Amino acid sequence: MIDWSKVNRILVIRLRSIGDTVLSTPSLISLRQFIPDAQIDILLEDWVAPLLKNFDAVDNVIAIGKGEIDRLKAARQIRRNRYDVVFNLHGGTTSTLLTRATGARHRVGYANHQYSNLYNHRLSSSSDFWEKDKTHSAEQQLALLGFVGVPVNDRPRTRLDLSADAKQSVATRVDTSKRYALLHPASLFATKQWSAENFARIADHLADNGVASVAVAARGEKSVLVELQKYSKSDITIFDDLTLPEITALAANARLFVGNDSGIAHIAAAVNTPTVVIFGSSNRDHWRPWTDAPNEIVFNEFDCQPCPGYECKVYGEPKCILSVSSDQVIAAMGRVLIQSKKGEPEPALIQSN
What we know:
Elements: E1 9-13, H1 18-22, H2 25-34, E2 39-45, E3 60-64, H3 68-80, E4 85-88, H4 93-101, E5 106-110, E6 121-123, H5 126-130, H6 137-147, H7 164-171, E7 180-184, H8 196-208, E8 212-216, H9 222-231, E9 236-239, H10 244-253, E10 256-260, H11 263-270, E11 275-278, H12 284-287, E12 295-298, H13 319-322, H14 326-339
Parallel strand pairs: 1-2, 1-4, 2-3, 4-5, 5-6, 7-8, 7-10, 8-9, 10-11, 11-12
């Protein structure tokens, strides 16, 4: 086991996506609560690293690029930092090799991670740790900490800190004094993407009740935003060029978030915005919002869920996401707003059409 009284430097490795990064914050919070005077660093991919730039549970965010030279530089840097403990919250080949490259005395990962022999603390599964069959991604990461003695039973929720610069930037582009909902109609896979036409119905319902809509997507996804505007009768402000800190600031000020299962949904949940997330093929138990803020997931159940999501091998088209109706989402919006602490809910908005 680890003698935590002798631990001064800790590295957390969490490669990959926006959602993965946001869902690492409960683990970072637990570490900071347990060992407040230690140096706690996190290694993230460079494109997502700005999300945690101002996060108070982290001392240093180390960004890594995708090129071979970038990864060699990162490996040298983390080797020089002489960490006592490294947690690999990812588990892929690259993150495992980086874990070993640190030379840390204590290297913590799962027994089913790639090259698991490179860890000297290996947990069998998060289900074994929590003693239940289904675990959330946040619980999966927290389990690694708990396995080596970090108190995690309080299961902290996700949290993001806001950048003053991002808040100011957003205020120059959106009238943040007015009520608006944040929509995210994009997704990497068709099996997770509710139609732009359906999102347009949500925007129209919001507009009819005095709430504007702001929709965001990544660069290269502008077509779905244009399609959303085409189907909607109301004016929708769209952005495909916001930074992740700017999206975080935009979400924090929103009256409500409605979107597909995505990293943006996790951002909204992490800033305590009431959240409605539409699920198709993905694992609801693993990826639902990890927050105490009002939230609901909307889905229709199929025997083939969850699936990898690259294609629908059962029906040919993703009935799981296509079958979700706008009425279902509007009803969920109403229930979430009733629970919301962000002011009194608008009477018309909390009623389904």
